[in-house]
Amino acid sequence: MELDPIQIRVLGSLIEKEITTPELYPLSLNALVNACNQRSSRDPVLDLTDDEVRQALHSLEDHDLITTAHDSRVPKYEHRIRTVLNLRRDETAVLCVLMLRGPQTPGELRGRTERLYAFDDISSVQSTLDRLASRDDSTNSAVDTGPVVTVLPRQPGSRESRYAHLLSGTPETISPQGNRPSVPASEALQIDRIAHLESQLANLAESLAALQERVANLESGT
């Protein structure tokens, strides 16, 4: 199973919204396009069209990774990745953020998963990453997946390694995001604080998106 970047963005957005805005989940096509293209908590920021997202949904359905709910006037979509890959809640949170924001260090992941799962400390994030990276085909999942996360070669001058998901196959050599220098482990606390501010900003964006969706539903009579 090797998913392309649009499929990854669609699947990651569905996972995120199920946890952060359960009252609006499953998502309509319009809500899903907005989630894929939102400016916060996304790296890179994309500008996908309805047709691109629709095509990705069809492909994900072929992989049995999403289902379509027909309990309203418009089709709505939900993911099945926890069932297919037999993921725990903490594993789902880490994988989701890796899908939406690319390779990250354990410190970055701890702050950026805050809305999805509350990790006690960086070591608990590391334990989750280790489990995801050491899975084998004997894992009791719906498909034989093996590892779904890998550690990337450490960048020159870095004391922390970054991790990437494997749902798109083995990553090629990846440069640091935005060519920013890697952050030393001694600054992990500062990373957490910055990530917390990012999380608060994302929460505000989520609240605005939820309000816009409610207004749209009222106007459409759904």
UniProtKB/TrEMBL annotation:
<dbReference type="Pfam" id="PF04337">
    <property type="entry name" value="DUF480"/>
</dbReference>
<dbReference type="InterPro" id="IPR036390">
    <property type="entry name" value="WH_DNA-bd_sf"/>
</dbReference>
<protein>
    <submittedName>
        <fullName>Uncharacterized protein</fullName>
    </submittedName>
</protein>
<dbReference type="InterPro" id="IPR007432">
    <property type="entry name" value="DUF480"/>
</dbReference>
<comment type="similarity">
    <text>Belongs to the UPF0502 family.</text>
</comment>
<keyword id="KW-0175">Coiled coil</keyword>
<feature type="coiled-coil region">
    <location>
        <begin position="194"/>
        <end position="221"/>
    </location>
</feature>
<dbReference type="InterPro" id="IPR036388">
    <property type="entry name" value="WH-like_DNA-bd_sf"/>
</dbReference>
